[in-house]
Amino acid sequence: MAAGTSTTPHHVMVIDTNRCVGCWTCAVGCKEVNNEPLGYWWNRVLTTAPNQSTSAKKPASENIDVPWGEYPNVEMSYLPVACQHCNDAPCVKVCPVQATFRRDDGTVLVDYERCIGCRYCIAACPYGVRVFNWGGGEYAPGGVVGYGKDYRTDGHLVFEPERPKGVVEKCTFCVERIDVGEQPFCVEVCPLGARVFGDLNDPASEVSQLVNEGGAVQLLAELGTEPNVYYVPTRRRVMTET
Amino acid sequence: MASQSVAVTVPAPGWGRRLGVPAWYAALGAACAFGLAAWIYELEKGLASTGMRDVVSWGLYIFTFAFFIGLSAGGLIMASSSEVFGIKALRPLARMGVLSAAGCVAVAALMIIPDLGQPFRVTNILVHPNWTSPLVWDILIISIYFVFSVVDLAVLHRRARQPGRSRQVARVLAYIGLPTAVLLHSVTAWIFGLQIARTWWNTALMAPLFVVSAILSGTALVTLVALAAERWAGFHLAPATRRWLRGLVTVTLLIDLFFVGSDYITMLWGNVPADRSALNLVLPGGAWSWVFWLEWVVGGLVPLAFLVVPRLRQLPGSLGTASFLVLVGVYAFRVELVVIGFVNPLLQYPPGNALGTYSPATPSFQLVGRYSPTWVEYGIVIGLMALFALVMTAGYQWLALGRAETPVEAEEPSGADS
Ligand code: SF4
Ligand code: SF4
């Protein structure tokens, strides 16, 4: 990467799991700014445990906020997951009509006018973050919330307040906000400041610091999808009886 | 090989005087109409009317698609092998085989349409094809395969009616047919096998497994069609042909089970958590173990017994029963393949994935996926199966397959001998 010389930013998000308290504000904020229908979650906060592999251990419960392990040896941490905006994205590779595409800044988007609804991308995404519009969506009363307008990039329709049925949707990195210099909404609303968004091409940016020196890692990095979302791993903290 | 046992000429009983025929057409027509109605309903309501959701996002349509792609193999491979490897006993089945190949691949292609969220945008595949997508390659090879089967059918038909003509063309087509069939099944297998997201799918064995299960199920289908035609439409199945069919089904069934078993062993021994949690869903005791029983016992050991145990294979219906059970087993394999890939969690952290629909008092999330098809899905699949039966019946009558199969020797005195 031509550091410093490139004019296109390389957008990445870093989530510090040590700060996350699992309040789901980012997930609800995401639903709100993107007007996601009932039962749709582009962004979720998973309950896990520090250094927990993605499949090695069964969780204690299928519900959130239940600590892992057996009393008194229990532990818990949170992992907020939305689209990882992979540089080598399986969803982009499998989409038969190039409806899912990657912009030069690293953002992976879906053209809602082109998608044929084959859901191959859902099958191919290793993170399970894609959402299909099964029946047009049922909205909470009160009308459209959030950004509320169509948004296009390079001619592709990548956001509309009410997505058509039969089309795949997912986290857009809030493309309509970042293109005008704002932060993604989840970053803005996180009450703990656990989320940082910025330009990895800028060595002075906070995300560069976290990725280059802060030990931030990618989820399922071994698959080589090269996500543009990084996580600062949870440090174990032992609670002692008082 | 005793060549005279192959050449048969049987006058077909007049179709018209069979009272059952109009009723058969009417029943199939009604089933097709029901399928069409179900599809219109689905278009109206969206795919929310199916049992699929964000966790298990491919279902009955894709099982059936993969199944029919497999079925289309047998006929063509049979027809082509009779030329390429000089298996004369299979030649009387050539046209019936190619007819079923064309019918199956057409039904498989149609099966995709109701699975699409935006079926009327399907032409986008031609306008903006993405050549890294196995799906684009699959659609390409499906189209080639369909056109090929229709042409092959026409050529074989001409040859059957005017012996001596088109022989060279038929030979060339046979040599093209075999690799095309193998490619079709490999590319379809790679839709799944190339995906790194789901370990259940990501095995190099996928393409060989698809090819062998395709030959297995395709041969079983042609056997059933031939037996049905023998029973109701004056077709004659020579003993040598029967032996070949029995042998082909037996061998491919064994290879098929060997491949699946070898995948199981790899996962069991390796004991990698993601593999094991997937496999445990299938093995006895798992939520999907009924698929295991259908695949290994009902569609595996039982038909094998009918094919090889001397006492059983002498029973009059043994070949037909075995063929039918084999089809059940291969369908179960398609279910196992697709569904386990989806229900096994990608990130095993609660609460799992959102479903993408909301209904009060039920959770919007699933950690381990669940799936059961709705009447809409069954309706559309039954409709398409009826369409297939309709194509086969009409094709059979139109090509007059029961009338007279040309004696092999009359046409090719210098044919390759095995
Ligand atoms: S996380 Fe999934 S949807 Fe997002 S870019 Fe990667 S593969 Fe695509
Ligand atoms: S569902 Fe849409 S975005 Fe996903 S692979 Fe199919 S056409 Fe592409």
What labels describe this entry?
heterodimer, A: 242 residues, alpha+beta, Alpha-Beta Plaits, 3-stranded mixed sheet, two-stranded antiparallel sheet, 6 helices, 14% helix, globular, B: 418 residues, mainly alpha, Formate dehydrogenase/DMSO reductase fold, 14 helices, 2 strands, 67% helix, disordered N terminus, disordered C terminus, binds iron/sulfur cluster
Mean pLDDT of chain B: 89
The CATH superfamily of chain B is Formate dehydrogenase/DMSO reductase domain
Q: How much β-strand is present in the residues of chain B?
A: under 5%
What number is the mean pLDDT of chain A? 94
Strand content of chain A: 15-25%
Radius of gyration of chain A: 18 Å
Number of helices of chain B: 14
Small molecules in complex = iron/sulfur cluster
Question: What does the oligomeric state look like here?
Answer: heterodimer
Q: Give the strand tally of chain B.
A: 2
Q: For the record, give the distance between the C-alpha atoms at the N and C termini of chain A, rounded to a whole number.
A: 52 Å
Spatial sequence of strands, sheet with the most strands of chain A: 12-1-13
Instruction: Give the number of domains of chain B.
Output: 1
| Class by SSE composition of chain B | mainly alpha
The run of helices and strands of chain B is HHHHHHHHHHHHEEHH
CATH architecture of chain A: 2-Layer Sandwich
Structural class of chain A: alpha+beta
CATH level 1 name of chain A: Alpha Beta
Which regions of chain B are unreliable across 5 or more consecutive residues at pLDDT < 50? 1-17, 404-418
